[in-house]
């Protein structure tokens, strides 16, 4: 009886997981290093506050004020004027053309350097040039294109002298829509190369080998494997190129002056204080540009995050 009761009462011991002891609070060197890390990012936040956040807030307030500082919506009504709408439309066309051309040519260049089985020195040379050319803009770029493709530019003179071809007889002008778009492509293409190259590096070799083992063709690989992975990166980069060209002002002003009515030049004319001076209308123009570039950059960030999730 007692044996049976002992057997009945014998229970396996419950294994209680050990309770982790709290991590001791680190003071001294750890806290000091964290404090120094925050000090390291102070210049960034200061720069963003002074040159991005405060100016954006200032123009947002000014866009809803008249010259006496009273609240008004007249500045946004003035955005519907034909000259302003034409300026936005030309800026859209220049930005769309340069971003599309930069995206196509830049993607092909990046593909040739990454997966084109070219000599090994091609890729680092292209990356170095792209890093320099993508930041080469403003007055120096405008001057370079005037000296190259102007009416007495080097290429124009050589074409007329040795081939008997007058470039300007075709209607081309470096001061026109096509000339400005061509100039923008100089920094748009290298920027596209820099952005899309990491995406091309993310294409795993095993994917192509698996497609070949299953009897797939090169077209099927790019149609069903590579392009579904690459399209968010390519489309996002194209949106970034659009925002980059839409906000460019120094190159356009130095190249065309006031002969091409784009929104950045119109904005400059409104703020600098000439006969077209209407500072608050300039704030409304700038706010519209912030909205357009903000949407483009937001689309780029969303597509980039989607591309990163797709490559995991």
TrEMBL record:
Chain segments annotated as transmembrane: 35-54, 87-114, 126-154, 174-200, 221-242, 248-269, 281-303
Q: Name the keywords, alphabetized.
A: Cell membrane, Membrane, Transmembrane, Transmembrane helix, Transport
Q: Does the keyword Cell membrane apply?
A: yes
- Protein's cellular compartments: Cell membrane
Q: Which GO terms describe its cellular component?
A: plasma membrane
Write down the InterPro entries for this protein, in alphabetical order. MetI-like, MetI-like_sf
Record membrane topology: Multi-pass membrane protein
Per UniProt, residues of the ABC transmembrane type-1 domain are 88-302
Chief subcellular location: membrane
* Keyword set includes Repeat: no
CDD domains on file: TM_PBP2 (cd06261)
Q: Where is this region: Disordered?
A: 1-26
Q: What domain of life does the native source organism fall in? A: Bacteria
Pfam families per the UniProt record, alphabetical: BPD_transp_1
- Name a biological process GO annotation: transmembrane transport
Family assignment?
Belongs to the binding-protein-dependent transport system permease family. CysTW subfamily.
Q: What is this protein called?
A: ABC-type uncharacterized transport system, permease component
Which organism does this record belong to?
Paraburkholderia dioscoreae
Lineage of the organism: Bacteria, Pseudomonadati, Pseudomonadota, Betaproteobacteria, Burkholderiales
